[in-house]
Amino acid sequence: MTPHSDRVRGLLSRMTWEEKLAQLRIVYRPALADAVELARGGIGAVFWPQSAAATNALQRTAVTQTRLGIPLLVGLDVIYGQRTIYPTPIGLAASFDPELVRRCAALAAREARSGGVNWTFAPMVDVSYDPRWGRVVEGFGEDVLLTSALGRATIEGFQGDDLARDDAIAATAKHFVAYGAAEG
Questions:
Q1: What does the pLDDT read at residue 140?
Q2: How much of the chain, in percent, has pLDDT values that exceed 90?
Q3: Three-class SS string for 53-77?
Q4: Tell me: the pLDDT tens digits for 136-166?
Q5: Of 124, 126, 110, 115, whose CA–CA distance to 168 is shortest?
């Protein structure tokens, strides 16, 4: 067991059911005052509050004004860049270059993290066959091997080898259980 595991177990043992349920919530509140109230209530995650200053205010609230001081997850769709915009994943797939994809994701993670984001809803690793499906652009196409290689490269780019680093964000491999299997 790691020290982190011990800390998590300790927190979970002290949490009420209400606190555990609140930690499962992710909300988007563009008005900072509304988001601060929810953070004070112990929510676990927010969808990007749009600035580093707002994110810092929310984190300060979560850490200093809740019973257990658990920081927030700050999520955002960082699909093809944050400030520097890259080709969409389907476009990057045309490169057949996992190292390029890894480097793009690493820079996107650095840029997102500078604004307080620590969690992304990417990569989309579903294998899509019908180009009319609305999420085709978020994935790497219809080849299973290419999708797995570029999905892995994206996760490695976002997370690096240590999520505690200030240039890493947690990745979420999403939409990979037949979501893209729809056909017209």
A1: 95
A2: 82
A3: HHHHHHHHHHHHCCCCCCCCEEEEC
A4: 899 999 999 999 999 999 999 999 999 999 9
A5: 110
Mean pLDDT rounded to a whole number for the chain: 93
- Residues, the chain: 184
List of residues 6+ apart from 183 with CB closer than 8 A:
129, 130
Which tokens in the block code for residue 171?
Answer: 């990745």
Instruction: Determine the Cα–Cα distance for residues 167 and 159; give it in Å rounded to an integer.
Output: 8
- Secondary structure in 3-state letters for the chain: CCHHHHHHHHHHHHCCHHHHHHHCCEECCCCHHHHHHHHHCCCCEEECCCCHHHHHHHHHHHHHCCCCCCCCEEEECCCCECCCECCCHHHHHCCCCHHHHHHHHHHHHHHHHHCCCCEECCCECCCCCCCCCCCHHHCCCCCHHHHHHHHHHHHHHHHCCCCCCCCCCECCCECCCCHHHCCC
Cis peptide before 123 (omega within 30 of 0): yes
Task: Write down the pTM of the prediction.
Answer: 0.90
Q: Which residues contact 82 (CB under 8 A, 6 or more apart)?
A: 76, 108, 111, 112, 115, 117
- Predicted confidence (pLDDT) at residue 184 exceeds the cutoff of 90: no
